[in-house]
Each structure stands twice: as structure tokens, then as C-alpha cells.
């Protein structure tokens, strides 16, 4: 049933003034809060290698090699544990079916939780039990106060590198489930009474303004629901469009999503899905953490979809360099081989002079 063992290393939590919201008195800190380093800034390096995937742990023990198309989250966990990764981005629906704390500690924690010191998550609809008006209590309890972010709603940002020196990547974790709450996730219709998604939109605008492209030339954002997707299940989500607009105007470079249980790599696009080789954002859908597969539709694929597969679980590896990045798909053990890798580094989008 895979190699399910717990990490023994315990890392101290660094307090960052003003960057966390305290949980309710009835909510005890979970494993991530006890073991994860809060401060992501570090000395400059020549590169950072990160991993990413979503749609991960089943609410049952991982299936063995006799069922390679379902519940292989222990095998994908091995990829991140042994991959020498600087950071691992979780793209939502990290724990099924309802993302309860008990499920997290029973199934996610002994597998992906072995790498908990490197995990930076985003929530998905299953963390909310598919109810955007609810609260992802199990997710917040397991991962702790920092993932609640400055407004306590589940979005935050951090840097990789000695920013703003090179290499410097600004990473933004967003909560796309808020886009389905009252008011959506665009500008508030009534600024005096914003919904949770409207608050996230305002925060994102401020965060991007505080990290301008001139000083932070490489920006990566990640959340659960993809703006663009070619999938028979959990496909494209127009509700997250306002997030794309803000990121595009700020010259962001990469967006990572899950939700569609397959892998997709798209050309750089503007918020309308049109090719934009100069300032477009490159989207990757990586819903391949181990839960299940959603097939690709029959017929002609969209022109801007460059690579896709729905047969293998695995992760996306991104090598982040100074003002450039590369990618490589990695299949888990026992999964079909699939090749998608960049031939050369892709430069980050720069603001026009």
C-alpha cells in the first residue's frame, strides 16, 4: 500500500508580526503549524526547484498496484519526498471527500505529510465540502494559522529567494472557492459590504502593487479552479476570471491549478484565452496528485492547449531561475510514462519600459 511513514523532523515556527490570524479557542494547531517554517525568505541561490499537484488523498488507504488509476497518493508522495524540492505547492482538494481534520491526519499526513516542512497549500472545493458558505475547518486546523492569511480567508503570499535580489520569485496562494460565495471574487458591488471573494480581490490587487514587476520580475499564482481547462470533469471556471485580470495587468508569469483530474499545459494567454506571446500568463493544470482521472474530451483540442494527458498520476516540477523558469512532468511509480518538458528556460514577463 505504498510507503506510508511519518516525517520525524520537527521545525520550529517563526512568528511574523501581523502575518497570521489566531484560530478560535476550540481549534488546536495541527501538524503543519508545528512543523512548517513560516519564513520563506532565504539566501540567494542559483535556482529553486518546486513541485506542484492537486486532487490528492482519498478518504481510504492508498490502493496498491492492482488499481493504478485510483488512490495512488502514496506513490505521488514519494515524488515530492525524494525530489529535492525547495517547496511543494498544493493545488486544492488535497484531502477527500470533505477535507476533515480526521481524514487529513489519517491519510494525507502519513503520505504527503511526510514533506510537511515544504508544503504551501491552497484549498479546494472538497476542503469546503462543496459549500462556499462554509468554513474549511479541517484544512485550517491541519495547516495552521499561516494559511488563513491576513484576512483569515485562506489566501497568502511569500517569496522564494532573497527578494528583491536575484533570483526572486513572488508566489501567491489564492482561495478560488471564495469566487463562488456571495459577491464573487471581483471588485465589490458595494465597497462598504464586500463578500469574502471581493476581499480577496482587493488583497490581491494590493499584494501585486506591493510587489511590482520592476522589483519582483517573476510571479507565480496558484489556486484550485482553472480559468481554462479541457476536461470531461471539473473543467473551465469563468468565476476566477477577475483573478486572471489582476495577474495579467501585473505581468504575472505562471498560474497553477487543479480541479480537472489530468495534466494540461497551455500557451501564454490573456484573460480572454487569446494567445499573447509578449505578456500572456502560462497556465498549467496539475490535478494529478493521486485521487482519480478525468478523461480528455474527444474531438479537437483548443488551439492554445499544447500538451495534455489523463492517464498518469504525478507532479509538475518547475525550476525557478533568475528571471526565467523551466518545467518537467514527472510520473509516479507504476504510472504510464509521459514526457512534457521545456527545451530551454522561458523568461519571465517584464513590464514594458
Task: Give the arrangement of secondary structure elements.
Elements: H1 31-35, E1 47-53, H2 73-81, E2 87-91, H3 101-108, E3 119-122, H4 137-143, E4 156-160, E5 169-173, H5 196-210, E6 218-222, H6 241-249, E7 254-257, E8 263-266, E9 282-286, E10 305-309, E11 314-321, E12 324-331, E13 346-347
Parallel strand pairs: 1-2, 2-3, 5-6, 6-7, 7-9
Antiparallel strand pairs: 1-11, 4-5, 8-9, 8-10, 11-12, 12-13
Helix pairs in contact: 3-4, 5-6
Task: Please give a structural write-up.
The strands form two sheets. This protein has a seven-stranded mixed beta sheet with strand order 4-5-6-7-9-8-10, with no helix packed on it. Strands 3-2-1-11-12-13 form a six-stranded mixed beta sheet. It has helices at residues 31-35, 73-81, 101-108, 137-143, 196-210, 241-249; strands at 47-53, 87-91, 119-122, 156-160, 169-173, 218-222, 254-257, 263-266, 282-286, 305-309, 314-321, 324-331, 346-347. The chain starts with 30 loop residues before the first helix and ends in a 6-residue tail after the last strand. The protein contains six helices and 13 strands. Helix 3 (101-108) crosses helix 4 (137-143) and helix 5 (196-210) packs parallel to helix 6 (241-249). Residues 1-27 and 35-41 have low confidence and may be disordered. Helices cover 15% and strands 19% of the residues. With 353 residues, the protein is an alpha/beta fold.
